[in-house]
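Entry 14. Structure prediction run on the chain below.
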Amino acid sequence: MFKLNSKTIACAGMFGALALLATFIKVPMHFGNPNLGSTPVSVAGVLFPPQIAFLTGLIKGIGASLWTGQPYIEMAAGIGDALMAVFTVLLVRKYRTDVAIICGQLSRYIFTSGLIAISVAVLLNGDPALIPSMWVAIFPAVTLSIIANTAVSLVIVRALPQKVSSIVESMVGTRGKDAKPHAQTMRYEKD
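Output returned:
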């Protein structure tokens, strides 16, 4: 059974800090700066239970909000990435890890982009009618971010040895009753 204790909070804090640092690896664009901030959030979705994965995204959002001074964008992105992490946790319970990472990152079109569009349109501009145009405006930046974060997340998770998954499992508990270690679910099994 999962328990929120000092070890689990430390894991979430560590991955949240990694996510915040990864936001500094970015490509400046007209609207939005695609970065690698959701890579540690995706990896947390593979390795940890939903509570830690969600906290990792929130920590990324809070930290990036404080650092950039743009909470209407960064906090929305952090909440969206937190939801993506939980979605990844749910997917990794039923599907191979690579499928879960790819689908989780693609869910950012809904979670992250949607929340940023709502936040910018409503909180910054005070006009809910702008939500669709905001979503379209950030589409290119989010697309580049999804491509980069998916690729890097897959490389990192494939490089993790089975031992890492076992250590994490013993520290924080299971991701689910039937969860398989990430290394086992990355292998393509032939019928």
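The longest helix spans residues 131-159.
Filed with the rest of this week's runs.
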